[in-house]
């Protein structure tokens, strides 16, 4: 730890009045010591982590932290707010006066992460926190954090990864039975701080309540799986997590308390009391809800959950699309379009013939494409009901293929499968069946119900709708096609790889399952529009570099390749830094490209690849014209809008816009803290 924090990384008079300002002040000390190579890039990573979940803790503590490629060595900076300068990190009891900024390299080793986790545990000790508030010098504070100061490393409560000794409460001192036993899982998105703080808090609360607890910390430094005997003997389970629990089926049939990781830190005694009450009532759960299911926030209503479930299916489907589509594209490039009529390579393969190799690629890609609908349905159901939903989802997706319900059928099959499993999980079953519910009963009932509904109730109407959609795409021409191109272009560029982008992309690749002239035009328009934002940002940083920060200009160089490869996410750093200018400009350029691609009647048989699949594009020269027009439109708008902002002299809090003060000065623009 002494290598991670030095007196130069301590600020006992932190004067920031916002969490962004506090993070920047501490990060600047890291930059001065060469521990952070790019201030704005690192702060963007800190802000992204903060957006996942506030890092404020009760008791006046803030622990912003992240893994970042801009960190050269594991580093810890500490700031104590000056009088009247408390910083709000989102803790329920108010702002923080103690701020720890934890910077871990993207490839930090387990040893360093273990040290950081030990700091997280010590922050749960009142004596350690009080000593930090009383430190007189940066050297004293650094020594306390590093564990080198006298009394800094006093023994804490036993690590909760081992059973806590039970001390029965007074009213149970004479009880003849064994102590109440609990197993717990703690985890957080980054796995550096909150995971271990929750474990420490649960361990201390259990010791005070006379409960024997074993905690599995699923953090970045690795974890030791709970012993099967500990799980079998546990009277209850506590999940304090913000990422899915690994292999949660092993806890089926146990009374379960399922909360976010911060609840494990802030109210561990309540969670253990709730676990004891559930065990006393015999209230058990066959399935621990996912973070989406248990979220009580207003924004996590049915619409938000539905979007998350659908995105789960699409995200697992995309790798099959990329692999299968590019294999088919290569097959066409080598053997021509007639390769789709080649005989089976298992029986007619000639090692020396290019046509045989093309046929091998085509048939392999076709097999990968055959998984699209089952994978979509299976992982929609998985997003809803976790592992028990996989089998019913895959079965429903296979039925959708059998009855020609296609992409829409797979989507509906996944929702039916997930809903069926969730409904069965709510039924109280005999104790003898609880252990086999996740692996036998739920897949069995879910598959039977999903297949019945798909074959006999909803399948045929959906298949008819799918055919009508296919026929409509086949007949697209003129103004209708151009309007569709505009809509798809807007969707592709609105959130740059987010839900709307994925919906438009899924719509396009769904049409490739039954290709026709219309669906091939849609695929071409979608890919062209998706290439525009990163290419436009690359062009803008090249033409008017002084409007962008040094970091953005470097990102612009990479954006050339990302855009050419159809990776819309290459524009995200620019959109995150200046969304009100970059996103609208990207949408306008995407709409122009989508409309022109449709107007030029360009077609595409590959679902990915960017300019590298130009030989597979119908009307390739006009296709490049459409992309160039959209790129120039977006780049021009971004330059115009940023130039207007520069002339007006508006400066954001993060310094993301600033008129150039002098020829020698480096204009500070770009990434927000």
Write up this protein.
This protein is of the alpha/beta class and 673 residues long. It has four domains: 7-146, 3-Layer(aba) Sandwich (Mannitol-specific EII, Chain A); 170-289, Rossmann fold, CATH 3.40.50; 300-472, no CATH class; 478-648, no CATH class. It is built from 24 helices and twelve strands. It has helices at residues 19-32, 39-52, 110-122, 126-134, 138-146, 194-209, 228-233, 261-266, 268-281, 291-294, 302-335, 354-370, 372-385, 390-402, 406-425, 431-434, 437-474, 478-494, 499-512, 517-543, 550-564, 572-577, 579-599, 620-648; strands spanning 10-14, 56-57, 61-62, 65-68, 75-81, 98-105, 181-187, 212-217, 236-241, 256-259, 603-604, 617-618. Strands 1, 2, 3, 4, 5 and 6 form a six-stranded mixed sheet that branches. Strand 7, helix 6 and strand 8 form a beta-alpha-beta unit. The protein is globular and about 75 Å long.
Cα separation of the termini: 27 Å
Report the structural category: alpha/beta
Question: Approximately what portion of the residues adopt beta-strand conformation?
Answer: 5-15%
What about the largest sheet?
Answer: 6 strands, mixed
Q: What's the gyration radius in Å?
A: 29 Å
Shape: globular
Low-pLDDT regions: 151-175, 286-300, 650-673
Q: Calculate the mean pLDDT score and round it.
A: 79
Count the strands?
A: 12
Number of domains: 4
Helix share bin = 55-70%
Helix run count:
24
């Amino acid at each position: 730890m002494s290598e991670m924090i030095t007196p130069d990384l301590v600020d006992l008079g932190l004067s920031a009045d916002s969490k962004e300002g506090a993070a920047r002040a501490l990060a600047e000390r890291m930059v001065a010591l060469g521990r952070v190579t790019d201030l704005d890039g690192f702060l963007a990573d800190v802000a992204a982590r903060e957006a996942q979940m506030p890092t404020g803790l009760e008791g006046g503590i803030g622990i912003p932290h992240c893994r970042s490629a801009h960190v050269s060595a594991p580093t810890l900076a500490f700031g104590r707010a000056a009088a009247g300068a408390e910083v709000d990190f989102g803790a329920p009891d108010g702002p923080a006066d103690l701020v720890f900024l934890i910077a871990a390299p993207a490839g930090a080793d387990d040893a360093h992460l273990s040290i950081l986790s030990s700091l997280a545990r010590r922050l749960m000790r009142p004596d350690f926190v009080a000593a930090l508030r009383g430190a007189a010098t940066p050297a004293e504070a650094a020594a306390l954090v590093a564990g080198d100061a006298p009394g800094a490393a006093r023994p804490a409560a036993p690590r909760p990864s081992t059973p806590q000794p039970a001390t029965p409460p007074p009213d149970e001192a004479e009880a003849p039975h064994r102590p109440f036993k609990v197993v717990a899982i703690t985890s957080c998105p980054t796995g550096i701080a909150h995971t271990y703080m929750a474990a420490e808090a649960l361990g201390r609360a259990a010791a005070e309540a006379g409960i024997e607890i074993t905690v599995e910390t699923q953090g970045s430094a690795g974890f030791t799986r709970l012993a099967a005997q500990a799980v079998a003997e546990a009277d209850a389970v506590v999940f304090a997590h913000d990422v899915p629990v690994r292999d949660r089926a092993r806890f089926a049939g146990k009374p379960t308390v399922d909360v976010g990781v911060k609840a494990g830190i802030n109210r561990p005694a309540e969670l253990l009391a709730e676990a004891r009450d559930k065990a006393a009532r015999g209230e058990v759960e066959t399935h621990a809800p996912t973070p989406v299911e248990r979220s009580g926030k207003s924004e996590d209503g049915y619409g938000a959950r539905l979007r998350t479930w659908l995105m789960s299916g699409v995200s697992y489907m995309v790798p099959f699309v990329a692999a299968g589509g590019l294999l088919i594209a290569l097959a066409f490039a080598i053997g021509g379009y007639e390769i789709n009529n080649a005989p089976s390579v298992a029986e007619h393969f000639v090692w020396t013939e290019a046509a045989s190799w093309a046929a091998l690629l085509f048939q392999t890609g076709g097999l990968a494409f055959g998984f699209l609908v089952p994978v979509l349905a299976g992982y929609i159901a998985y997003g809803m009901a976790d592992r028990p939903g996989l089998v019913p989802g895959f079965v429903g997706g296979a039925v959708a293929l059998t009855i020609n319900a296609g992409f829409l059928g797979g989507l509906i099959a996944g929702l039916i499968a997930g809903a069926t499993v969730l409904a069965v999980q709510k039924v109280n079953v005999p104790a003898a069946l609880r252990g086999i519910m996740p692996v036998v009963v739920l897949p069995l009932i879910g598959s039977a119900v999903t297949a019945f509904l798909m074959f006999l109730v909803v399948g045929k109407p959906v298949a008819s709708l799918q055919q009508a959609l296919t026929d409509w795409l086949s007949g697209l021409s003129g103004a209708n096609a151009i309007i569709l191109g505009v809509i798809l272009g807007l969707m592709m560029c609105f959130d740059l790889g987010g839900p709307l982008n994925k919906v438009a992309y899924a719509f396009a690749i769904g049409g490739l399952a039954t290709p026709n002239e219309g669906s091939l035009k849609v695929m071409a328009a979608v890919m062209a529009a998706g290439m525009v934002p990163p290419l436009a940002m690359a062009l803008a940083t090249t033409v008017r570099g002084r409007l962008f920060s040094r970091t953005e200009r470097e990102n612009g160089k990479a954006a050339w390749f990302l855009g050419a490869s159809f990776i819309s996410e290459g524009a995200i750093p620019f959109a995150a830094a200046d969304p009100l200018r970059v996103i609208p400009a990207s949408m306008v350029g995407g709409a122009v490209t989508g409309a022109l691609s449709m107007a030029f009647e360009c077609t595409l048989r590959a679902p990915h690849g960017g300019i590298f699949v130009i030989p597979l594009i119908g009307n390739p020269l006009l296709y490049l014209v459409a992309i160039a027009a959209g790129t120039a439109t977006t780049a021009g708008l971004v330059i115009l809008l940023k130039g207007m902002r520069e002339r007006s002299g508006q400066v954001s809090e993060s310094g993301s816009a600033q008129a150039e003060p002098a020829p020698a000065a480096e204009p500070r623009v770009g990434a927000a803290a």
